[in-house]
User: Fold these one by one.
Assistant:
Number 1:
Amino acid sequence: MSETHKISAELLASRRQIKQLLNWHWKLKPQNNLPELISGWRGELMAEALHNLLQEYPQ
């Protein structure tokens, strides 16, 4: 994904943001908002791909 959009992997998704997404997906911690990786400009780039990936890992 980072190569496709010519954005460094660190800028595209930090470790904190990945943990936030997984906590949201598996409902490990309560969250009021969507994770940063599927909202805003990151969501525009990655939401569909991340949704497809997370479908392989049931809640």
Number 2:
Amino acid sequence: MMASTLAHLKSRMLLPRQEAAPLEASEAAVEEANDPRAELVRRLLEYQKYKDAAEQLARQDLLGRDVYTRNVPVEAIPIPEEEVGLQEFSVLKLIEALDRVLERLVPKVQHEVVLERVSLSEALLKVAERVRTEGQVAFTSLFTEASTRQEVVVTFLAILEMVKRRLIRVVQEEPLKDIILTPNGDALERLVPTEVDESDYR
């Protein structure tokens, strides 16, 4: 179901801008099919809708507006043209990578253990720490310890949020190869863990 939905979404994305209505139809179709990832797809479709607005703001400093930093001036972070961000790197490629992760996820027996819910803020900071310390992190490696779909989805949304805020860059050397996350300048160094605003996640 997910593979066919992704193919359908990609075909819709190739239509002229005035054909935006079918995207909403695809969203409804996913939800009507009771796909457990319907909510994720819905959010990503909404994200795609304001992608144009993000492109218009690409030259503005998003970090200072979306992430609280220490009391120092926030300078614009130059992004080399060869680097890839959400504007150039299709969100649908990230969805496809997520789908492969979910397909490999083997449910574990919980034995009545109540799992603590992982917040987007916690997931964002965890991913940020790995990218900051390792320099280059493979997309799939961020999900090796995930035992539930909820953990996978929250981590994925945290990655999207980090790209939107220009905290990291997303690159892929060749089709079908793993997606690589790298720091965007020193943006991660200026992220203050105790001051991440979670209002967007509620």
Number 3:
Amino acid sequence: MTVLTLLAAACGGGGGDGGSTAQIETGSSGNAAAETVIAGEFMSTRPGAGIAAARGNPQVVQGENPCDSSATSEPIRIAYMGADLASLDDAGLESLIIEEPGRVIEAYVNEVNFHGGIGGRCVEFHSYLWDLGNATESITEVCVQLPQQNVLFSFVLRADTNLLNCVTTAAQVPTIGLYASAPSATFEAAGGRFYADDGSTEYLLTSSVDIALQTGLLDMSEPVGLLHGAADQATDPSTIEQTLRSSGLNLVSSAISPASNLGVLVAEKQVRLLESGLSEPEQAEAEMKLAALPPEVAAQLELVEAFFLDAAEKFKDSEVTAVVTTADWSDVRRFMRAAELVGWTPIWIINDIQPATLTLTEAPERQAGNLVSVSARRAAGDAIPELDRSCMSLRNTASDAPTFSHRHHTDAWSLLQATCDYLDVTFSAMTRAAQADGTLTRESFMAAMHQTSYDTEYGTLITFGEDNPYGWDRFRVLEADPACVLNHWGCMRSTTDWLAPTG
């Protein structure tokens, strides 16, 4: 299982103990029907405003009283799947400060239920968390448990191939990816049931190149290198390269990242793999730690190191001045470190496959200053729309939730807002699909998802269609600002307006 599969950015679940899967039902409003709902009040809530903005039908939610979970009608069940965020530090991802998306999902569900549910039916929320330290066993538990609940759809953070295979493809559960990308073959295998905010790795790559050309970051004569992700080996890397060349790009060199896993990520931090500027004592300590590793781990680290140093020399010799990529964030950072060691400083053009926080953590400062991201995400310096503010307020109503204490445009803030965006998308689809009595099927839900056209307040456009399972339709160029004090490493700032790919 690759590092990207295991996590990669904004990544996972909430509580849960050990390797077991936590199942949490928070969506029902119980017998709170004694409190009357004021007509029209739902439109003043975050779900009401968001559903309306996403072109849903809020009237389907409006009822005179909260829905009654003891009623004879079956609840509408939805789910969330993600890694247990409590184990991020143990996985060497302590720089990633985010919180479990289930909190705001729970709060959104509860607000909808308080105002009558969907056509009078309560929405019931189930959360399934898996353990980074025991991924295989705990993901298997999710694969067994979630399909038994007959959920209408499930959210997933990132895009774990094993979860998609068992839940989306085998159990045919429509799945909405948050911060999610995967090779186009994964979308094809899901049979139209996987909807991802980011999209396929190929779409994100070609879109980043398109926007870079539109904005002058690249020109057709500039020698460009492509760092493939390890997942590209499952398809035909030459097809991706031919697509870039057919757009007129001067692609002069490429390399395919080797497969790695979470153990390599943790071990490379211990031995400070590919880091530059180490003192003699630091270098000696790193060598001692390398010698203490299990032989198979040490051998894999040596292969990873050799690959990226060789690739950096190859790209440098080819006079590459800009790098585009489908690789995992960890591989991009390794390549940046190798580039520093061989004295090569290209422009790094990443996209939403690679979370900037993780890519730039402990990256060489000179290389970090040359990094840009073609992204659909919020950025430092953006105005805060009202829907974003009310999303945070809604999240604070979740049961046992501490007050949201993270600054605007940190990772925690951005993931929270992205979750609200896609709650708006999915619940607006539910209101379009629901019959008068609240009847919903997966087929009617998917048909309504294909009608999605959500012009968000912060600037991007979210659309889905029968032949379009990728959410983001507009992008900006964000520039790394290591001097910014928003995150411990800096921040990303927008340098362009919102742009749509021309292809």
Number 4:
Amino acid sequence: MQDAAGIANKGPIRKKSPKDLRNIIITLVLVLFLLSSIPAVTCAEDELLLNGTGIFLTTGESWSFDQGYQLRVKSVNPANDRVWVELSLNGEILHEGILGEGESLVYSHNREILNITMDTIYTSPSGELVTFKPVYQYLDPALPEPEVNEDTEDNQSQDDMAGDQSEDNSRSIPGFGIMIASIVLTTVKYYLDRKGRDKK
């Protein structure tokens, strides 16, 4: 009586034909192409509402963010480069603080929602202008998602538009061109090698 291993080893051995090899290569190329066409989107990109933009406020002014958040400049002390800010959500004060140049107000609710850095205070006879840059806002999952407003693009500065264009370019699939070139070169090499073997 033979054991199972002996039976398995004495089975017919099938040689791979060039047709089988071609089918394997075509399948691999198709799989790679399909995988490369899937958009490379991360959760963080989907949740990012403001990506490092800059905002400008004078004393007493407020900036309304998506999902009902609001930043208000309560007072400015240009001599010390300090700003008193208030962060609220739908009229309810969440945080108040004094920021110096380069300091950040970070608001978290189970995770980071807002990250606002005070950049510069400009003074003039008419008052003070405070710039906050970069400003990041992430989606707050506890609140309803913001509605997409097409008029928002009209209100953006040229810097923001240029940043968005470079951001769109950065979302392209890294190495896609190299991958396609390597697939083409591999396919050409395979057929040239095959043609060389057929001539012998």
